[in-house]
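B., you asked whether I could sanity-check this one before it goes into the benchmark set. Here's the sequence:
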Amino acid sequence: MYYTFLAHLMQNNEYSKFATPIKSVGRIYKEKTSSLRSPYQRDRDRIIHSTAFRRLKHKTQVFVNTAGDHYRTRITHSLEVSQIARTLGKIFKLNEDLCETLSLAHDLGHPPFAHAGEESLNECMDDFGGFDHNIQTLRIITLLERKYYNFKGLNLSIETLDGLIKHNGPVLDKFKYDKILGKKIFKKKINFLNKPSLESQISSISDDIAYNSHDLEDGLKAGLFKIEELNGIPIISDIIYKHKKKLKKKEKELVLRQIVRDIINEMVKDVIINTKKNIKYENPKNINDIYKAKIKLVNFSDKMINFDLAIKFFLKRNMYFHKTVLNKTNRGKKIIKTLFSKIKKNPKKFIKKEAFDNKSKERNICDFIAGMTDRYAINLYNSIK
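And here's what the prediction gave me:
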């Protein structure tokens, strides 16, 4: 019944020969297959039902979660990434469920207070292997989530693990992964040097598209900069000019939303056109050629890469380094470092016994803090400072 179900899915979806096959190569721990869901639908459902995913709703994207109800959090960002990724996956006739799964899971490892929290935790763990939110995502899905009798973690498919490991491309140096996760965690089932699947590459670039465009929207809504200040950025200036007359006649927030939609559309269209060019140039014959490709197949054009860099530079200068945001993030750094120091003196007072694994005391504390929401971290800090 299972194989009939898979054949039906593949026939109806008309998958590309470059798509990750619906029939998975398996999981780290053997499990019975489902007659109702593909392996990647099961992976997606496990992620959505995980504790780590629910916590994302109270974790900072840019603004600390307590700053307001309408700014994006990690969970809204992840949902927006998955929407873009499914669109691209459908266009290229890829495995949409895998695109969605990777997008929903890619930020599970983020600590409270966004990159400020990550920077502080990395400093606290400097002598103990460091901290990296991408590797922390892997710790969560392979070790820290406890929902099954027979194994730790979520036991996701090899294809999902591979896509999350290579969110930023092939892994040329495994040292940090081995140090934080352990050398035997993947049981030699992952080829770290291969290029990521097209689904993984789509999830990664969708992350970039969502991050830039929606941070611009949140920054504008927060009054950190004005629409007119974006005129110096190519592509955006053309979009703003198109909506210039509307700015006087329509509600400003409505015009802003349309501008952001147009930015996303421009970036998505560019990815589609350029990826088709790259595939034609590389001329892969099958999925194995995708893993061995010489170039990154899913990518922006040179023009859009420059646009992407210009947005990042603008946001860094006008948003991430804005006094209002810096004050919040600096407080977040202080909270993380204080919590680490206080908890280290008596970990068992704060961390449940069953949450400890065979790693160092410091790694267990790091896991505990990384799993906190902004609110929980603030409240705990206020109670023990």
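One thing to flag: The CA atoms of residues 127 and 358 lie 17 Å apart. Otherwise nothing jumped out at me.
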